[in-house]
Amino acid sequence: MDLFEKFKDEIDGNAASIYVLNEPLENRFPMHWHHKSQILLVEGGIAYLNTHDKQYYIPARHFVWIPPHVAHNIKFNSSSMVIHNIYFMDEGDVDHPFYGQLSIYPVTGLIQEILQLSEAWQGNVYSGSWEYELLTTLKHILPHISKQPFTLLLPTTDDMRMQEILSYLHDNVSETLMLPDIAARFGYSVRSLTRLFKQTLNTSFLQYVKMMKMTRAMELLLQTDKNVSEVAYEVGYSGLTAFSNTFQQMINMRPSDFRQLK
């Protein structure tokens, strides 16, 4: 039995238990799903959660709630990151307005304290123990204290035409990327490329480019020592004010404050 099958069986083997995994193993698993709901907390960098059609960015001091049966995989590129996973018993979660949605939220002080208590735990936690009661309480309070989701994500596609275009955009994130120029480079009219973005990614060219630049900015702010002005330049902004305003609009945080999550 390989590592993934071993842990999948352990996580879902007892439907009534809560399973705690404080090892950074999820990034070694292929696209998969669980019968249980999952909370994943990131400390010290950015993790990347992929579903079949989206890529989510999970910054440090944020958690992602993953409902049952949602196929996903997790990637991260820093060995110093700390990842906490808790898999909760299903209480009809898919039909709940909070538990039924894959969403990312900032970690509050209360959530952080509870998760710190569970740092040394590993494996199944069973009903009747104080540990089970504590984690059940954590699950039940989340909808009441997690009100403002972190919404930045990049849509993905299997369309080979778009993959070539998106690869070019990512490789040239530091440039000023204009729709007419990209359309001409790949042999499209502006109208045709606009339609292709909408059909395959359900977003506009401009919105995709803004999201792409802001996700790269988040990576640079958390994973390098570049100052905010240098980061702005690295993602194609000539002015700090325009960069900071766009970052604030999309991340709900000033770049200088976001850096403090490092």
UniProtKB/TrEMBL annotation:
Family matches, as PROSITE patterns: HTH_ARAC_FAMILY_2 (PS01124)
HTH araC/xylS-type domain location: 163-261
UniProt KW keywords: DNA-binding, Transcription, Transcription regulation
InterPro entries assigned: AraC-bd, Homeodomain-like_sf, HTH_AraC, RmlC-like_jellyroll, RmlC_Cupin_sf, Tscrpt_reg_AraC-type_HTH
GO molecular function: DNA-binding transcription factor activity; sequence-specific DNA binding
Aminoacyl-tRNA synthetase among keywords: no
Signal peptide range in chain numbering: none
Keyword Phosphoprotein assigned: no
Domain of life: Bacteria
Gene3D superfamilies, per database record: Homeodomain-like, Jelly Rolls
SUPFAM superfamilies xref list: Homeodomain-like, RmlC-like cupins
PANTHER family recorded: HTH-TYPE TRANSCRIPTIONAL REGULATOR NIMR (PTHR11019)
Protein known as: AraC family transcriptional regulator
Organism of origin: Chitinophaga flava
